[in-house]
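Late entry, written up from scratch paper. The run itself happened at the end of the previous shift, but nothing got recorded in the book at the time, so transcribing now.
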Amino acid sequence: MTSKDDKRHHLDSMLMRESMVDKEVMASTEGSVPVVRMLPHVHIMKIGASSILEAGKDVTYPVVDVLNKILEKHKLILSTGGGVRSRHVFSIGIDLGLPTGVLAQLSAADALGNAHILGTLLSPVGVVAIPPEIFGHLLPLFIRSAPGVIFNGVPPYNLWEHLPAIGRIPPNRSDAGSFLLGECFGCKTVTLVKDVDGLYDSDPKKNPDAEFIPKIGARELQQRNIKTLPFDRILLDLLHNTRLVHQFQVVNGHKPETIAAAVRGEHVGTIIHADN
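Output as recorded:
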């Protein structure tokens, strides 16, 4: 307790004497000051590894050409996943009994390899892959200095990866990492570039009669419990708690023109949004 005769200056802190496990205290931390948007003019774009980079030059080169044109006018943060290599590593790891956290660590290494592949293709315009060790806090500097940057989209939970509700595959993969980065930096858009036009009520690669879903809220999509989604399912949970990025769009990279259209703010795929 501070004495009345104490002339020292004391700093007030809203959490100094509060419990960090009290729900009302946690609710009060929302505060009256809006969350800072650090990079509000920048677009996040996840380039699918298995759907684009590993599909061969006939698919990859047109996507790279479109990215080059976009980079002339817009700042991009590009991400990649581990693709087929991660699937192979997951298979080996599960067969050997490796825990989820170790699988997440291995997957991040695969994603970084694909980031360097994309960086090699975009190096003529000064866009390269940045190692995760220096990426985060230096990102605003990189964006100011270059048209864009590339990172491995797998979030660095590594051994501390969240436990999946089903199976042992890490739930936070490159789609989730791309969205989380966009939310942290308050980016303008988040686009996931896949090999389908967007979301369907069933897998369109197996069911030619699958119904296309142009726009849907996260809660409704969870209630529909569609068996196969073209993105990390955990994104739906993330949308419930978002502060800055309230939607993402899935577009077809095999139709490269949709990538540029998404950056311009056009609805050309499926938009999954937070519920009001």
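The chain has a mean pLDDT of 94.
(Scratch paper discarded after transcription.)
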